[in-house]
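thought: fold this chain, then report.
action: predict
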Amino acid sequence: MTTRESDGGPTDSTRMIGRVKRGLAIVGAAIMLVTAAAARADGSNPSGGSQLPSPVAGQRFGVGEIIVSYTDDSRRIRLPGRRAEPRQLKTVIRYPAATEPSGVDVLDAPPARSEGPFPLVVFAHGFDITPAPYARLLRAWVRAGYVVAAPIFPLTNPYAPGGPDESDLVNQPTDVSFVITEMLHGNARPQGVLSHLLNPDEIAVTGQSDGGSTALAAADNAHYVDRRIRAAMILSGAMIPGLSGYTFPPPSPPLLAVQGTGDTVNAPQSTYHFLSLARRPKFLLSLLGAPHLGPYTDEQPQLGIVERTTTAFLDRYLKHEAGAASRMRRAGNVPHVATLSRSNG
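observation:
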């Protein structure tokens, strides 16, 4: 297993690296470009709309960012026209920084280590997308005091050689566990941005769409379950089709499922089904009439509701804060827009 810090851009300009290396370079360059655009301090949306309000109470940290490449030498992928190669996970890591809170991600910013250690949240992106469009949501968690690691899965991102391949979804829960391990290795090192920054006993997984399916398997599928996970948030996700093992083996981590009732990609019934099987405590945040992706990227007021509710959920189950449960109820119940229910089934 190897870890290499990267500037997110091409690492070799020669033609000999071939299509695979070019694809990885494109991913890194795209992340940097989109991250830079998303991190503009003016907070305006790309279409020129009005400035979005800061949606989460108690945000007190600036946002630092590094991009690393984690390579799992124990597992292989086979790319078009190439021999099998180790699984490489370029990972965008945001962390509470010793800078003023703002809408800007500061590359290599000094971490707010004196106010840590901080819980870790690993975020899994959806199919044919990178973590970049989710930047506002991920940044909200960081400003509230969480380290957020967002890997790019090697075969389901839009820049995968030969195009994204959804059949690789079954390998992604193990990727999530691998990223957790690498993050904890960084935490144990005597130097580096991650050094002594994490609370290794407080880890959550989350993801949207196929990323939600990835997170659910890592938290609750007997074939993948990672006992280090203490909470899970599934954003318009489902059980992986054709995969057995959804026994939610105890002790199952607290679960928050978020689902738009107008979602035509992930049918609400898919969320209701896994939630009915899950162990308590479990919650359902219903976004009334909301679609599949927008509530997690740029659609308001749904995005603000998701930010506030998920942050309160993390505060309750990772930070164990008094009052977080009531904040969660207030955030998730908005007349005609959203309802939050605690499931007893």
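thought: worth noting. The chain has a mean pLDDT of 86.
final: tokens above.
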